[in-house]
């Protein structure tokens, strides 16, 4: 990650208006929400990877895991630039939501295929689309927030789009299998 120019967040905060402090709080919440989403995505990918040992899907998911983990680190670095902590409550909530999602998708009690796999991949496509939109929003916000500057947002957004497209291919294949489309 490229170093961001400017004064430390604490020094900037001293000169902030009440509205700017409020907006900073909203930004921290936004970053933490996306960080929590990445926690849920990694949990789900890890679980699915274990269910498909020795397959092309396992290899695909392992690669996706590494990429999302790298994106997650960018979010952590941004929170650190604001001298803010990760929200343990949000991360725990995301972890629990992923566990409930497994039950909803039938991933705990059934074979990890069919509609359950399709719905799990639906969730990943939606989450990755959200991440793509996150990078776009942060690029815009970087005009006002020096802590957000220095990242290559077009590359991050493009990587998210590529991830989404690759998962979408797997999702469509899962739909064909689930609904026996030839």
Q: Could you describe the 3D structure shown?
A:
The chain is elongated. Residues 1-7 have low confidence and may be disordered. It has one domain (17-178). Helices cover 76% and strands 0% of the residues. Helix 2 runs parallel beside helix 4 (88-105) and helix 5 (114-141) runs antiparallel to helix 6 (153-178). It contains six helices and no strands. It starts with 8 loop residues before the first helix and ends with a helix. With 182 residues, the protein is mainly α. The longest helix has 34 residues, at 18-51. It has helices at 9-14, 18-51, 56-81, 88-105, 114-141, 153-178.
Features:
182 residues; mainly alpha; 6 helices; 0% strand; disordered N terminus
What structural class is derived from the secondary structure elements?
mainly alpha
Q: Strand content of the residues, in percent? A: under 5%
Specify the helix fraction band. over 70%
Largest sheet: none
Radius of gyration: 18 Å
Number of domains: 1
Number of helices: 6
N→C terminal distance: 45 Å
The mean pLDDT is 84
Q: Runs with pLDDT <50, length 5+?
A: 1-7
Order of helices and strands: HHHHHH
Categorize the overall geometry. elongated
Number of separate strands: 0
Summarize the structure.
The chain has helices at residues 9-14, 18-51, 56-81, 88-105, 114-141, 153-178. The longest helix has 34 residues, at 18-51.
Topology of helices and strands:
Elements: H1 9-14, H2 18-51, H3 56-81, H4 88-105, H5 114-141, H6 153-178
